[in-house]
Design a protein that fits this description.
single chain; 100 residues; mainly alpha; 77% helix; transmembrane helix
Length: 100
């Protein structure tokens, strides 16, 4: 059980880092940030915990790692989608329209 909790917290690091970067580069969130950050963390924790519970029955470490990597990418995407913007377009729209 302790190993699963450690894996869960390590799996949250990319999502938390994404939220920190979103707050830094897209700061115009108003008071919605107070509500959406805990909701995002809750959704990601539940999603990762469910994935870890399901992958316990899988014996292949390669398949477990692949599933966990995909789920971590999904949690990053969820963090990006749930990040609010007060008066600007959504973060996804702003990233799509960005020119490098």
């Amino acid at each position: 059980m302790r190993k699963l909790v450690i894996i869960l917290f390590l799996s949250l690091i990319p999502s938390i880092a994404t939220m920190i970067l979103l707050i830094k580069f897209f700061p115009f969130t108003g008071l919605a940030r107070v509500i959406t950050i805990p909701i995002t963390l809750f959704v990601n924790v539940i999603f990762l915990a469910f994935t870890l519970f399901i992958t316990q029955k899988i014996k292949s470490k390669v398949l477990k790692s692949l599933i966990l990597a995909v789920v971590i990418l999904i949690t990053i995407f969820v963090a990006t989608i749930l990040h609010p913007q007060e008066y600007l377009p959504s973060v996804i729209t702003q990233l799509r329209e960005m020119e490098f």
